[in-house]
Amino acid sequence: MRLFCLLIISCSIWGASASVNYEDAPFEGATRNMHLTGPPSAPVQRHEELKKRQASGSNQVISVSPTQGCPPIDAQPLTSETTGPNGSIFFLNCGISTKDKTRGQWRPPNVRVSDLVIGADFSSAAALSKGIFKPCAPYFDAFVNASAAIGIPPALMAAFAMQESTCNPGATGSGGTAGLLQLSPDKCTHDNCYDPYTNIRIGGAYLQQLLQENQSIVLAVGRWNGWFSGMTYSDATAARNTDCYSQRNLDYLHQYFNGWLQGVDSYGQYGVNPRLGFYFNLDVCGHGSSGGSGAGRLAPKLLICLLALSVSYLIGL
């Protein structure tokens, strides 16, 4: 019985360690198994400051003409699960059906960089260190220089880095995507894309190319994640049964425009705000909700513990 009791205690500790694990939390961008630097200090206080700052401006929502055939813009000063200053997820995902998965094609709204509302404080490396962009602070100059070269706010480049890798320069994703911005191998043929400065420079040039082809920043951000005009729900989720993580994240636009660009944690990792999104189509890939819930890791551990407990009980140990 002594071994039986020890097994009960061990299983309790083991299960608890699986339930919250910030060191192994998966993400919904192109990469998985990234290592967090840990939650920024006093995140709740900063979230309250963000709410006050957002609420203080009556016009801190995007102002663009409605797109014909699209849902209402429904922009709100405060970010929530499905909307925020740059419009609702249904506006950004215009045309993608939420009910009939075989119909409905994406029609990216015509939103330019100059139309965007950006609430994140990107004024200095010190400012980054105090907010959700803390992992990006060491590369502040690189983001500023690359963004200046193409005439966009630096927060746009850093938001990609947070969405794709949580600003982890050593990240490797599906299909060999590399570094901070998860650049595909074809963009890194002659360069070391794990070098953060090289990665940001090449990523900036790619974003510039996308914006030159079409000035819609919504289309450009979508294309970064493999979206295309006319994409359907079925197109986005086609890889779920073959290479699950190669799916296109249907919550990507909302997480980018209303999450990271507002200084809000899109993945709800630290319990300050809910996870942003509606579709969560990558949840079927085996990690459940992001933010270190550990549900996928917990189930097999419990099964092993139950088997061990059953055997020890039957033999009377």
UniProtKB/TrEMBL annotation:
Molecular-function annotations in GO: hydrolase activity
Record keywords: Hydrolase, Signal
Signal peptide: 1-18
Pfam families hit by this protein: SLT (PF01464)
Domain Transglycosylase SLT: 145-222
InterPro entries listed in its UniProt record: Lysozyme-like_dom_sf (IPR023346), Transglycosylase_SLT_dom_1 (IPR008258)
Superkingdom assignment: Eukaryota
Record SUPFAM superfamilies: Lysozyme-like (SSF53955)
UniProt name for this protein: Related to glycoside hydrolase family 23 protein-Laccaria bicolor
